[in-house]
Amino acid sequence: MKGKKVFYIAMFFAIIFMLFRCEGRDSREYLEERIGNQISRVYPTKNLEDLFVEFPNGFTIYQSYLLTDKIIKIELDGTEKGKPIEGTIKQIDIKSGAEEKKIAVTYDKGKYSYDNEEEARKLWPKEKFLFQEMTLNTEVLSKFKLKDTYYNGNNGSFEIEYVVKNEQINEFLGLEKKQKVKLGLHGSNANKRYYYTLSVKLDSGFTFRERIEE
After folding, report:
1. How far apart are CA 17 and CA 1, in angstroms?
2. Count of helices and strands (H, E) across the chain
3. Using an 8 Å Cβ cutoff, are 160 and 129 in contact?
4. Listed residue (117, 106, 122, 123) closest to 72, CA to CA
5. Rounded distance between C-alpha atoms, residue 168 and residue 129, angstroms
6. What is the reported pTM?
7. Rounded to a whole number, what is the largest CA-CA distance in the chain?
8. 8 Å CB contact between 111 and 82
9. Per-residue pLDDT of the chain (214 residues; tens, 9 = 90+)
10. Residues 6+ apart with CB under 8 A from 67
11. 212, 75 in Cβ contact below 8 A?
């Protein structure tokens, strides 16, 4: 009985400790400082090669477009400074999950090349990333209209979401100038390296995502 009593007391204080640690971590101030300080390392980065300044051991860039019936995914790996950055463009059927198209991509000295350029231009006409156009940091985030915050004390994942009317986002995605979108930033304290996702959602169901992973 004595052992059980000690166990329950220990559990009680452990729970209190966890709640105390997580208190305030879902606040706007905490998340904007946590995310803003890190994401400013990438947003903006004009040239992909310059990412090696922040991530000398390499990086992977992900970008995706969730459309009505398909997903377009772009993935590029920067393995070593001075070497081409290579990857793929894929078209995936939403219902079946089947990979319908796959195109090899190479980025070298500011230019892209493809094993099927005509098809690549159809799937990825922008041929760029939002982090090449947009500045994000704690100060910028503090000026956005907050929608919601989230922090999971069990695994350290967090996110913050805004409702914004942003010229850079709207121009990048080909939207009307006054279009409002939901801008989300996602990360986790469990990741020791850089790993943040930016998402843009429209009421129509369209979702854009971009992530740089160290």
Report:
1. 24
2. 6, 10
3. no
4. 123
5. 12
6. 0.86
7. 75
8. no
9. 555 554 444 444 344 334 434 458 999 999 999 999 999 999 999 999 999 999 999 999 999 999 999 999 999 999 999 999 999 999 999 999 999 999 999 999 999 999 999 999 999 999 999 999 999 999 999 999 999 999 999 999 999 999 999 999 999 999 999 999 999 999 999 988 999 999 999 999 999 999 999 9
10. 206
11. no
Question: How many Å apart are CA 123 and CA 105, to the nearest integer?
Answer: 12
182 strand-pairing partners: 163, 201
Contact assessment for residue 163 and residue 145, using Cβ atoms and an 8 Å cutoff: yes
> Checking DSSP bridges between strand 99-108 and strand 85-93, what pairing results, if any?
antiparallel
Counted residue by residue, the chain has a size of 214
Structure tokens at 29: 């101030």
Tell which residue, 169, 171, 96, 88, has the closest CA to residue 123: 88
- What pLDDT, on a 0 to 100 scale, did the predictor assign at position 192? 87
Q: Which of 113, 75, 115, 78 is nearest to 91 (CA)?
A: 75
Q: How many alpha carbons fall within 13 Å on the CB side of residue 185?
A: 25
- Beta-sheet strands, E only, within the chain: 59-66, 70-78, 85-93, 99-108, 111-114, 145-151, 157-164, 181-188, 195-201, 207-213
Token representation of residue 205? 């169901």
Only one residue has tokens 């790996």, namely 77
144: tokens are: 């956005």
Tell me the C-alpha distance between 7 and 11, whole Å.
6
Question: Scanning the structure block, which residue is given the tokens 């929608």?
Answer: 147
